[in-house]
Amino acid sequence: MRNSSHKAGLTDFLAQQSAQTNKKRFSPNLIRWLKALLLPTLLLILCEFLVRNGDIEAYLLPAPSSLWQSFWDLAQTDLLQHIYISTWRVLIGFALGSGFALIFAIWVGLSKEVEAYLEPTFSALKSIPSLAWIPLLLLWLGIDESSKITLIAIGAFFPTYTNTVAAIHNVDRKLIEVGKVYRLNALQRVISIVLPAASSGILTGLRNSLSLSWMFMIAAELIAATQGIGYLLSDGRETSRPDIVIIAIILLALLGKISDRLMKQLENYLLRWRDTIHKQT
């Protein structure tokens, strides 16, 4: 009996050691990445097979293996310039649109009187599709950078505005009354009480605004541009180059994912105090 119990204990010990070794060998982050890459990899293999087998014509959908050469050819010319121009337009438009949105949202969120004047107009403007702004902006601002950045700023304005107003409305009014008791002026109450309490909703709006900024950038560059990723999309369509179109789409997906990831890390950093509160409670 004693030998059998020793054997059972040794078996359990070896099983635990094996499980710990597997955990060290396959970290949760690695497993998460493998799961995320599974579907895209299967789609690439399927596309490669269908094109090579002749089920899909190459002029409609090039084989994924042939995209590398097209990407290398673009990289040898002005691909980095296109990426830089589009990224610069997005960042400037996002900064302007979100900045003005924060100002108006704080104003509307803290004043019922201002909300009565501005909220109906902003709600109506929010419903206008992005493409509807383009003819008017071209008439007013021409085809230079100002019209493109203005369109991106319009796209970035409304998600930040809407989420910020909702977040401020959800702030406990007792906190604001406490600020008045401590004789904080209006600006001090906004900075010390309102913005920290509404920070979660504000940052969610900023993330949504950044995503929409990329979408509005494509709308602007498809209409009137000689540089940028949207121009690559238009040029690939006009020259019947689906490989360039697909490369531009992949670049948009990567840039959008990277920017959203950076914004998420910023959000986690700014809201790190929530984790501290949860640990204390």
Describe this structure in words.
The chain has 13 helices and no strands. The protein is an all-alpha fold. The two termini are 49 Å apart. This is ABC transmembrane type-1 domain-containing protein. Keywords: Cell membrane, Membrane, Transmembrane, Transmembrane helix, Transport. InterPro entries: MetI-like, MetI-like_sf. Belongs to the binding-protein-dependent transport system permease family.
Helix content: over 70%
Distance between the termini: 49 Å
Strand share of the residues?
under 5%
- CATH-level-4 superfamily name: MetI-like
Q: Structural class of the secondary structure composition? A: mainly alpha
- What string gives the helices and strands in order? HHHHHHHHHHHHH
Low-confidence stretches: none
- CATH top level assignment: Mainly Alpha
Shape: globular
CATH topology: MetI-like fold
Number of domains: 1
User: How does the major sheet shape up?
Assistant: none
The CATH architecture classification is: Orthogonal Bundle
Number-wise, the strands total 0
Organism: Acinetobacter dispersus
Transmembrane segments: 33-51, 88-110, 122-143, 149-168, 212-232, 244-263
Membrane topology: Multi-pass membrane protein
Domain ABC transmembrane type-1: 79-263
